[in-house]
Amino acid sequence: MSCRSIAQLIALAFFVSACANNQHAAIHPPREEKVCAIYTSLLSFASEDSMHALAALGPPLPATEPAATQPAAAVQPATGAVVKKAKKREYASSSTHAASQPYSDLLDDSTPFGILMDKHRRSLAGTKNDSEIAMAHEAGFNTAFITLYPIHGRDWWSLPQARAMVASAAARGVKEHFHVHMGFSLFNSWMCEHPEKYPGASRTIQCDGTRPNWVCYFDDGLWNYYIKNAVELAKVGNEIQGNIDGIFVDPEAYGPECYLCFCDNCVRKFNDWSGQHMPTGLVKPDSWLLARGLWNRYSKDWHDHEVLRHAIDLRKAVHAVNPNLRLSSLLWDYPVAVGVGDPRQQYFRMLAIGLGTTAKPSWVLPEHTYYSDGPDLKRIIDQVYTDIDAAGASGRVEVLPGIRILRRSASSLLERGEVLKQSRVPGYWFYELGDLGEKGIIDFEGAPTDPGPQYIGAFRKMNRELRAPVKSVTP
User: Which domains are delineated in the chain?
Assistant: First the structure.
């Protein structure tokens, strides 16, 4: 089989009809309003009764939570910021803990299938989220991306209390007049740290033969599990009045970054695809490939094909349940490694492309726009669309840039909002709702520079403009 470029590979996977010559009219129809989305978790939308029911599983919780061991932040946050115990962006266990503690120590198997750690049970038992939803309304958001935290990586659909909590979050979001997208993290410790969870799966083997303890990110069993999660979310959506709008995935690695693998399973799939005869069990796989001029064939061509294949399978499975669901994925480039062309970047990009069709384009949710001012936001939007065109995926992916308020003034939102209003993008997403409230400050990220109410007011004005009827968009 001759080597194909990425664009040729994608064109082969997605046949574009003759009407693609008029694609700009199809890609950018007038919209009633732009997407103004918040990103949050089940804790912000699930009913209190459902959270309490799940938290009640297992033995009684200790009366008090263990004292925090983290050191105090070295830098004082700006005036108006709320200082609490430092938190991490936690979809499952943090990657820091995953690197130093065994899987069994991270999971508290006090429920029938180890779905929650005690800290998660405390959160569920003590959460009251009416004020968060009211804050989202006050700021003028119309869409909610709701991640499955804190129940990633467990068969939540098989436990009535867990499934009821997911359904209650989706139903409440719809009832509160949000367009709801439900989703989950792909590469966290609950999903990936025990390869034996997936029969026949291997640990990742890196190009030099070293072996992180996480499962191969290309494993068919792992991806069948992702598909099962997405299909079950689609089924939940079908059961609630009004239905959800979409499903999203987050491919950031919260642990070892295994975006390229040379395990025996991967080598066999590469041989089947390419017609090569690469041996399994090599001490240093890259030396064999490089010596034969096959490095790009394996690490780029086959790599892209395999991610694209899995993404297409997920999309088809979800659309078999509900063809109207929008599929989305976070990240186009890694924020601190933009445009480097490494396997991580290609994993993000092929995933987004595989989830979309010309009839139902996927949304990619870049994070390297988080801290941009207006001109930088415009530059990145234009670059991502250029990248999409170069990959042969025009019309199959639309860009929904991410925004944060950290280290930027409330007034900066208006400049960014004007860029979004004039842009071809369908809207934007804000990470995360907790930043407007009493979420703890993470020192390396920085802090808001203004009090929370000022950001809420700025969002309200910005979102009012973006939600006004749109007659035309800038191509």
Answer: 40-55+78-466 (3.20.20.80)
